[in-house]
Design brief:
CATH architecture of the largest domain: Orthogonal Bundle
Order of helices and strands: EEEHHHHHHHHHEEEHEEHHHHH
Strand content: 5-15%
Number of helices: 15
Number of strands: 8
CATH class of the largest domain: Mainly Alpha
Radius of gyration: 30 Å
CATH superfamily of the largest domain: Intergrase catalytic core
Oligomer: single chain
Distance between the termini: 90 Å
Shape: elongated
CATH topology of the largest domain: hpI Integrase, Chain A
Strand order of the largest sheet: 1-2-3
Largest sheet: 3 strands, antiparallel
Structural class: mainly alpha
Helix content: 40-55%
Number of domains: 3
């Protein structure tokens, strides 16, 4: 067989047999005359015995499907992997051989995706492609060509936002007259539970299970209808919920309308809208001198406080994350946290030190 092109691959391929042994693969050339010269060289080397038997070829579509079945299907990340693999197949062409996928093609794909999503999302897709290539090379033993320089293909990710509401800031904020009482209850609830803003605003009494001590909500996911997430009702949360009971027949959090507008009447109670309360929230933060604090930072605050006393896994369950890496972006460690942890470790692992007359070794030195 002479050189040929495989479906949508831009390169010519060769496929021949010498003494019953098959040799095939990509020439990595797009000019037919050059590909024929390459094939002739491969034949010469095969006859001399210096050309090793070529590995089997596998398309990206085949590799992605097999990886999903073997590695992703029975894991918690299956939906995310399925979504990312579909993006890769669409962006790099399903019928392309792994050996034909070049760094230039992957880089171009990453640049296109960067116009659609953030750098972290693009990097996760590139890292998944790397895992597919690694498995194809080491487990399936198929031809992947030259392994791409994966680190060079990744984008620099901006440092995640780290903003926790301090205890003093919380006291000042909740004490301000500018913060309406009903909005204060909503904010305090999110600080305690880490619940996302829209889930809290849309929380109904049917989702509050008093006897079980749980709040059950559905959070967005690629699964139709979302996934169920359960938040335990602590003593503080129970008291806060009890303060809302009877105010609105359906929604847990509601507010009293201060002036008639549209279909709403002054003095009547209504559920919170997505953004109608932002003016009050902004004025309250300014009055309390709480700077650079967004409402979503209540979720960071809840995650950090929980991790500080219960560890990352407790925070992971509270926030409803599928993997600990996501939780780490929502929890922040301060120098005081590190110092306290060091002191706890020292007190557990070391015997009580003997009294020192001068606790400061530098004191008294000239």
């Amino acid at each position: 067989m002479s050189v040929y092109k495989h479906e949508k691959s831009p390169y010519y391929h060769f496929d021949f047999q010498i003494k019953g042994q098959r040799f095939f693969g990509s020439t990595s050339l797009t000019v037919k005359s050059q590909a024929r010269v390459y094939e002739a060289e491969m034949r010469r080397r095969a006859i001399e015995g210096s050309l090793r038997h070529k590995r089997e070829q596998m398309t990206l579509n085949q590799a992605a499907g097999r990886y999903f079945e073997e590695k992703s299907k029975n894991t918690r990340s299956r939906q995310n992997d399925d979504y990312q693999l579909a993006n890769l197949i669409k962006g790099l062409c399903a019928s392309t051989f792994l050996s034909d996928i070049t760094e230039n093609q992957i880089s171009a794909y990453a640049a296109r995706r960067r116009n659609q999503v953030g750098p972290a999302s693009v990097n996760r897709e590139i890292e998944l492609l790397r895992r597919v290539f690694r498995r194809a090379q080491t487990v399936w033993r198929v031809d992947i060509g030259e392994m791409p320089a994966w680190k060079e293909l990744l984008f620099v990710e901006p440092e995640g936002r780290k903003r926790e509401l301090s205890r003093n800031e919380e006291v000042r904020l909740m004490a301000r007259e500018e913060l309406p009482e009903d909005l204060g209850y909503l904010a305090q609830f999110c600080i305690l539970t880490g619940m996302r803003k829209m889930n809290a605003i849309q929380l109904t009494w049917s989702q509050v299970h008093w006897d079980e001590g749980e709040i059950k909500i559905r959070v967005k996911s690629r699964k139709p209808g979302g996934e169920e997430h359960t938040i335990p009702i602590s003593s503080a949360v129970r008291g806060l919920l009890a303060a809302q009971y009877g105010k609105h027949p359906i929604f847990v959090f509601s507010y009293i309308c201060r002036r008639s507008r549209g279909g709403r009447r002054k003095g009547e109670r209504y559920p919170f809208s997505a953004s109608g309360w932002r003016g009050d929230w902004k004025r309250s933060l300014e009055a309390a001198q709480v700077e650079d604090f967004k409402f979503h930072d209540t979720r960071h605050t809840a995650g950090t406080r929980t991790a500080r006393v219960g560890g990352l896994h407790a925070a992971k369950e509270l926030l409803g994350h599928k993997d600990i890496a996501s939780t780490m972006r929502y929890t922040h460690v301060t120098r005081d946290d590190v110092r306290e942890a060091m002191e706890r470790a020292e007190s557990r692992n070391n015997p009580e030190p003997a009294p020192i007359e001068n606790a400061n070794p530098l004191k008294g030195r000239k």
